[in-house]
Design a protein that fits this description.
The chain is α/β, with parallel strands linked by helices. It contains 9 helices and 8 strands.
Length: about 300
């Protein structure tokens, strides 16, 4: 990885930051993408101090806003003539339906449309930098269906369902892009990273609580919302992630593996869990669904 340029969205905290640190230790030149300048500056300082690698920079971007994603791509292309690895790691879950400034449901905007747009805008440079790799962070809780009639929660909204479909979208996008990139020297793979106690996991709990509010709590119970969220987070941990939680370093291992290992140098269009190829939901291999999603995504981002 010596002097290879790696761009990581969501690289200032949690799994993304642990991934960035691992790549910095491997000698990569890093661009961390995040929304909070203060957190970004701290992440850069931490990674430089812990890795001894000073080739780390930060770009402050709100990935929910398409003009900001386009500006990020323009900045990256102007500052970095070669990009060897793009890791789309940033992700959110919204307990209640929110629209971005572009009029897009926020979870879909950040989790799927932002990586779709950014990757496409960087694609020619990635090809020119080949061998290059694109890595999309999905989740083992990805949905088993893609409801195009309710893609943005227009009819009914449940935060966890929207999140799970956005993670399925990551896989469908990966496989569709891999087909398009055959023979270019650019590979694209996706993964379930693992589960760490992060704000995202707490948001799972809030989303579940909003979707299915408790009905048996006594009135005016102190901190009842906090207690309900904690209860649901604990329930989600054991129901969705029975093997328990990982450390950030464990959760980052698969992204680092896909970015650096020669074992996967020519591997593309696959889904990985714990550095091993795994089998996603059957719908993830449906090319008709993937192409319909690609067309709709292109329409929503103006490509």
């Amino acid at each position: 990885m010596d002097q290879q340029t790696c761009v990581i969205t969501g690289g200032t905290s949690g799994i993304g930051k642990a991934t960035a640190l691992g790549l910095a230790k491997a000698g990569a030149k890093l661009v961390l993408v995040g929304r909070d300048p203060a957190r970004g500056a701290q992440a850069v300082a931490d990674i430089v101090q812990q890795s001894g690698n000073s080739e780390v920079e930060f770009a402050a971007v709100d990935l929910s806003e398409q003009p900001a994603v386009r500006q990020l791509a323009a900045t990256l292309l102007s500052r970095h003539p070669a990009i060897h690895v793009l890791i789309n790691d940033a992700g959110i879950v919204c307990p209640r339906r929110e629209l971005t400034a572009d009029g897009i449901e926020r979870t879909l905007a950040v989790n799927h449309l932002a990586p779709f747009l950014l990757t496409n805008l960087l694609l020619e440079t990635l090809k020119a930098s080949a061998p290059a790799r694109v890595i999309n962070v999905s989740s083992q809780v990805h949905a088993h269906d893609m409801d195009f009639d309710n893609l943005q929660g227009e009819q009914t909204y449940a935060g966890l369902d929207v999140y799970r479909r956005s993670k399925l979208a990551n896989i469908l996008f990966t496989f569709a892009l891999a087909r398009r990139l055959e023979g270019t020297g650019v590979t694209v793979n996706c993964l379930h990273p693992g589960v760490v106690q992060t704000p995202l996991l707490a948001a799972f709990g809030e989303a579940e609580t909003v979707a299915r509010p408790p009905t048996t709590e006594p009135a005016r119970q102190p901190n009842k919302v906090a207690l309900a969220v904690k209860y649901v987070v604990d329930r989600i941990k054991w129901r969705l992630f029975p093997s328990g939680l990982d450390t950030p370093e464990q959760a980052a291992a698969t992204s680092i593996y896909l970015a650096t290992s020669q074992e996967v140098a020519g591997v593309s269009g696959r889904y990985f869990v714990k550095c091993k190829e795994a089998v996603p939901a059957q719908i993830a291999h449906d090319e008709e669904v993937a192409e319909r999603l690609w067309a709709e995504s292109g329409r929503l981002v103006g490509l």
